Here is the input.
Amino acid sequence: MELRKAFLLGALFATCVHASGQGDTEQKMVIIVDPGHGGIDSGAIGINGLSEKELTLNLAEAILRYNNTLLDNRYDIYLTRYADTLISLSHRTRLAKALKPDLFISLHCNHANNAKASGLEIYLHDSPLPQGHMAMAKAMETHLKTKLGYRGRGVKRANFQVLRDNTAVCPALLLELGFLSHLDEARHLERKENISALGLAVLTGIKKLLE
Ligand SMILES: [Zn+2]
Here is the structure.
């Protein structure tokens, strides 16, 4: 009900702006996608030698590509890095402060000493959160589980800097997309088409959260 009201108000506002001639183009939603790690920071290294920094960048590129080809550039998506470079955590969050996005998504892959640990984890900051952030994280988990068949390990809370600095600006989620220490999950990520499928699932998850 509240959402519907907000939507109607939004639609009304958009009509007013249009009618007054202040803007003919509908404002696109802005999303920041943060490929974890980069440069000398490889992140986790998989049991099969895959590096997290490379996977997260490939995933982010798939998200950009599908936003272009399937969604006709529905969203303005910015990456915190476009190459294999080291970007400080504070620079990653400074971008959000400048762009004021509708959503911040940080992409990671997990690693554990226990080779049996598997599945998805979604993190939110551990401070009291604005209404709706927890529901978004849960919806993203359900979406990814359903689309990809991964085991869900639940929504967790942590004091990660990318979450801490962004939560005041917009909903900020950190996705741990499988364990590089788990043989099957690491092998799954060796195939380009599986990275593409994962990127597509994250993008359609984002679309669901922002509708
Ligand atoms: Zn990571």
Notes: The beta strands are 29-35, 75-79, 103-110, 120-125, 152-158, 172-179. Residues 1-24 have pLDDT under 50 and may be disordered.
